[in-house]
Specification:
Blueprint: H1 8-35, H2 38-57, H3 62-79, H4 82-93, H5 100-128, H6 130-148
Helix pairs in contact: 1-2, 1-3, 2-3, 2-4, 2-6, 5-6
Length: 149
């Protein structure tokens, strides 16, 4: 962000925006997932995350970074708790709810492994271009949505 003329103070404001939105919207978006559809909420999460990174690819001002951060915050909020609830509901429908703890533990382990791989790949890609990191970041939620649904 510093390389795109975003100051330390503006970064602090962006963190405050993220924190405030998370506190304000966590419960309402959880209720939306319960009422609407967990599957569609997860799709919305992926779209919001992708929009974040697409916005950041073209960002050179505080306001565009803020818009991207709002998309990313919404993506995280829509995903928060929804994956766990979706997994439980899926197992319950298939008569496997007693396996939830074991399967959820595997999900967490796979997420940690995926994060480690993404960090290593991101470090490698950043040596080539930070924009390339953002492109991969924008594509990955879309690929995950396609594979998952």
């Amino acid at each position: 962000m510093l390389s795109r003329n975003i100051s330390i103070q503006e970064i602090a404001i962006l963190v405050a925006i993220w924190s405030g939105l998370t506190v304000l919207l966590e419960v309402p978006t959880g209720a939306l997932a319960d009422r609407w559809s967990r599957k569609y909420t997860l799709v919305l999460s992926g779209l919001c995350c992708s929009l974040c990174y697409i916005t950041w690819i073209f960002s050179s001002s505080f306001w565009l970074f803020a818009l991207g951060l709002i998309f990313r915050t919404l993506g995280g909020i829509f995903e928060s708790g929804t994956v766990q609830a979706y997994t439980f509901d899926f197992l319950k429908r298939h008569g496997k709810k007693d396996d939830f703890e074991k399967i959820w533990g595997r999900c967490i382990a796979l997420r940690v492994i995926g994060t480690a791989i993404a960090l290593a790949l991101g470090g490698f890609l950043s040596e080539i271009s930070y924009t390339l990191v953002l492109v991969f970041s924008a594509l990955s939620p879309l690929v995950i949505m396609f594979v998952a649904f």
